[in-house]
């Protein structure tokens, strides 16, 4: 049995999905990859880990073969390079195991899995470089660099693909954890609604246990089966076929009662998740420290300054300068297309708010007719976006070339100039308009402590399909949990989202 922490929002009175809205949780055929559905979660979890091993081992074989071909290209080489090429896959899989990259507590959801793979790649590269230096081995640096960098990239890519396959299975109701929730009826109802919004987390609420004084008449609020009182939670979980019990903040469940519950769940190998009131806080900022037998949760402050900010700035300037050189022909082609399509200016400049509330002019390729700003007032009633933003899915102000540019986010390429000038970052919160910032409540101003980005969590989580509230929430999550590794993962995910053209209009 494992125990983890999770956040849950406060209860509200919004409509709660009925149990009939959920996919069937019985056995089903999920194909050769996942086996027999949710009847035994250990089956699909074990198969997932085996697939990861195959992906990582295969990625290393491909990487070493590519390095061998690219570096030597038919030239003479020492026989021990063949031995090294055979050892690298074993070293890579072993190092990933040592960094716990195959543990199910970091798999299936979140970015911790990808961060561990990146850290393993850096360690293997540095380690082999040190060994070759100390041993004074005449090792071709090009071979080593290509092999190890490509290994890391291919392993990450393979894991992203596997995660996508898992999400597709979960969209169909497969590979889900069956969750019994313990808590007060309003909190259970809120959590049920929150988990039902998205499928990728893999948590499916199948029922609840409530305090004894709330059992009467609670079903109309909770709208999932109520299996009984809190004291019978372990037996209820076994009877319901749950593999996870989630405990919300509840005074009736004190320390001794939770400990007894953990013992009882251990008997049936059922996981225990205890929620906290923390929202959007990354796991690496949380440390559980025992104080006289009490587990105290210590929350580190986000690191938004110092050396980490310097590394981010150097990375932004270096990459943006390189990309501007590489995409210069694309700039010229897009400029020509815009001129031939509608004439008028190629670029569109708009005042946005940067870090600390400073103003700057963000540059984009023009995708709308030149009178677009003047037509906003007349089209205000057609707004399809909640909050302060104005968006229309089939906006008549968008030009023919503009629709294509927006679909693949090519209109945002000139923002590389803003990044090079230090006004923006490659990854960060969405750059807001001054009119948006004027309406921010105090907590939303937190997103202004970092530079706005060309891409971010909002870009890889739905883009224009997100509500204003969701985009703000994702921006705050990024600010609170920023790291260089997170930036790299977001950049990789951005490439995949842009190629699909999903959520852009």
TrEMBL record:
Ranges that cross the membrane: 51-74, 80-99, 120-137, 143-162, 313-338
Tree of life domain: Bacteria
Keyword Coiled coil found: no
Membrane topology classification: Multi-pass membrane protein
GO terms for MF: phosphotransferase activity, for other substituted phosphate groups
Pfam family, one: Bac_transf
UniProt GO cellular component terms: membrane
Residue ranges of every copy of the Bacterial sugar transferase domain listed in the record: 312-499
Stated family: Belongs to the bacterial sugar transferase family.
Annotated protein name in UniProt: Undecaprenyl-phosphate galactose phosphotransferase WbaP/exopolysaccharide biosynthesis polyprenyl glycosylphosphotransferase
Species of origin: Couchioplanes caeruleus
């Amino acid at each position: 049995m494992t125990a983890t922490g999770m956040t849950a929002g406060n209860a509200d009175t919004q409509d709660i999905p009925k149990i009939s809205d959920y996919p069937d949780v019985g056995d089903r055929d999920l194909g050769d990859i996942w086996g027999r559905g949710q009847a035994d979660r250990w089956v699909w979890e074990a198969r997932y880990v085996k697939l990861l091993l195959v992906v990582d081992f295969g990625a290393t074989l491909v990487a070493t073969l590519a390095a061998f071909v690219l570096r030597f290209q038919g030239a003479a080489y020492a026989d021990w390079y063949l031995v090294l090429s055979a050892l690298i896959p074993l070293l890579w899989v072993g190092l990933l195991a040592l960094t716990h990259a195959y543990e199910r507590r970091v798999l299936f959801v979140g970015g911790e899995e990808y961060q561990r793979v990146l850290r393993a790649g850096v360690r293997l590269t540095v380690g082999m470089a040190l060994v070759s230096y100390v041993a004074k081995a005449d090792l071709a640096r090009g071979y080593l660099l290509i092999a190890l960098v490509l290994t890391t990239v291919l392993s990450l890519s393979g894991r992203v693909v596997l995660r996508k396959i898992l999400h597709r299975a979960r969209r169909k109701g497969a590979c889900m954890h069956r969750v019994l929730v313990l808590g007060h009826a309003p909190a259970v109802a809120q959590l049920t609604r929150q988990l039902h919004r998205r499928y990728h987390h893999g948590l499916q609420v199948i029922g609840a246990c409530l305090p004894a004084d709330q059992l009467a008449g609670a079903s109309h609020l909770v709208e999932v089966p109520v299996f009984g009182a809190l004291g019978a939670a372990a037996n209820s979980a076994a009877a319901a076929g749950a593999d996870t019990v989630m405990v919300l903040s509840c005074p009736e469940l004190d320390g001794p009662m939770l400990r007894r519950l953990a013992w009882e769940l251990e008997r049936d190998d059922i996981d225990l998740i205890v929620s906290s009131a923390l929202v959007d806080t990354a796991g690496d900022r949380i440390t559980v420290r025992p104080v006289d037998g009490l587990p105290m949760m210590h929350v580190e402050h986000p690191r938004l300054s110092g050396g980490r900010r310097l590394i981010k700035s150097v990375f932004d300037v270096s990459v943006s300068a390189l990309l501007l050189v590489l995409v210069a022909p694309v700039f010229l082609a897009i400029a020509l297309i815009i001129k031939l399509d509608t004439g008028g200016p190629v670029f569109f400049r708009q005042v946005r708010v940067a870090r600390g509330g400073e103003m700057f002019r963000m540059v984009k390729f023009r995708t709308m007719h030149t009178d677009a700003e003047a037509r906003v007032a007349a089209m205000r009633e057609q707004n399809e976006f909640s909050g302060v933003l104005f968006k229309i899915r089939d906006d008549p102000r968008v030009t023919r070339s503009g629709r294509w540019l927006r679909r693949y986010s090519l209109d945002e390429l000139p923002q590389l100039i803003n990044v090079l000038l230090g006004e923006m970052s490659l990854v960060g919160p969405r750059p807001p308009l001054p009119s948006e910032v004027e309406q921010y409540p105090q907590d939303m101003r937190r997103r202004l402590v970092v530079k706005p980005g060309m891409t971010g969590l909002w870009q890889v989580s739905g883009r224009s399909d997100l509500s204003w509230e969701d985009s703000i929430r994702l921006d705050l999550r990024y600010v609170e949990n920023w790291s260089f590794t997170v930036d790299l993962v977001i950049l990789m995910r951005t490439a995949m989202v842009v190629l699909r053209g999903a959520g852009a209009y």
